[in-house]
Task: inverse folding
């Protein structure tokens, strides 16, 4: 069974005002990048295409949702919220590898074909991100299963 | 002025689409991939190709590679900060922007970025 799941019910965890806030943040980040490019040139502007402005907002929202869910169940939820945000950050680190692939493919292909650059770079992002996530998941599950038993010297299996 | 209105609208739509996709996917580490999706880049580079041409967009996306490496370092730093300290997500992610700036501009300086 695939470990990746769609759960549209997660959308109910959010408040209505979070959507316009995200829209405004995304728009503002794009305008900001344009302003930086026109003021300081293509290279400095290019750096800001990978600015984690959106990440800050999404990690904060994930933490808030987790805390709210735990509080509704009668727990404090603060530590759980921090852990959920940390997991999101770990995923973002892998996504950054995909973004690196996106930038490299785009810079090579765009001078030949603009449409080809967008399609190729997007595919590169998706492939590299998902592959990195799968490799990390696999290596973590192998690591969990092979915990050497210091007493007996045997390798013990642990359930997931 | 019109260019910036278009930038705002396109950026808002693309970022919201990726963020919503991240919301409905689980597990959380997989959804986190969408926190580093090139949403702002897709919106910006589309307008850049149209307004300034392919060469300018190529230069911009080449510099973006330094930003992406800085993003990877930033994400690991935020993750460690959240696990090892009692900092909340907002201050941890905002304070770590200093790390992103240092790594991004450091790499750009190393490779001799042109403006």
Result:
């Amino acid at each position: 069974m695939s470990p990746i799941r769609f759960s549209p019910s997660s959308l109910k965890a959010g408040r209505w005002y979070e959507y316009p806030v995200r829209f405004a943040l995304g728009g503002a980040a794009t305008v900001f990048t344009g302003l930086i490019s026109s003021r300081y040139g293509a290279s400095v502007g290019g750096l800001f295409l990978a600015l984690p402005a959106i990440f800050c907002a999404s990690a904060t929202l994930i933490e808030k949702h987790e805390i709210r869910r735990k509080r509704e169940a009668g727990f404090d939820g603060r530590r759980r919220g921090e852990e959920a945000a940390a997991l999101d950050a770990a995923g973002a680190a892998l996504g950054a590898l995909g973004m690196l692939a996106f930038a490299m493919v785009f810079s090579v292909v765009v001078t030949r074909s603009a449409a080809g650059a967008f399609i190729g770079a997007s595919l590169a992002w998706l492939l590299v991100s998902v592959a990195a996530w799968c490799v990390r998941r696999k290596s973590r599950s192998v690591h969990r299963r092979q915990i050497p038993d210091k007493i007996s010297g045997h390798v013990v299996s642990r359930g997931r | 002025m019109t260019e910036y209105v278009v930038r705002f609208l396109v950026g808002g739509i693309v970022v919201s689409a990726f963020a919503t996709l991240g919301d409905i996917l689980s597990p959380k580490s997989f959804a986190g991939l969408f926190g580093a999706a090139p949403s702002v880049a897709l919106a910006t580079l589309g307008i850049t190709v149209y307004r300034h041409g392919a060469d300018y967009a190529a230069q911009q996306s080449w510099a973006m590679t330094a930003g992406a490496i800085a993003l990877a370092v930033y994400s690991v730093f935020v993750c460690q900060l959240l696990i090892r300290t009692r900092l909340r997500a907002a201050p941890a992610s905002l304070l770590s922007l200093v790390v992103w700036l240092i790594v991004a501009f450091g790499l750009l300086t190393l490779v001799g970025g042109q403006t």
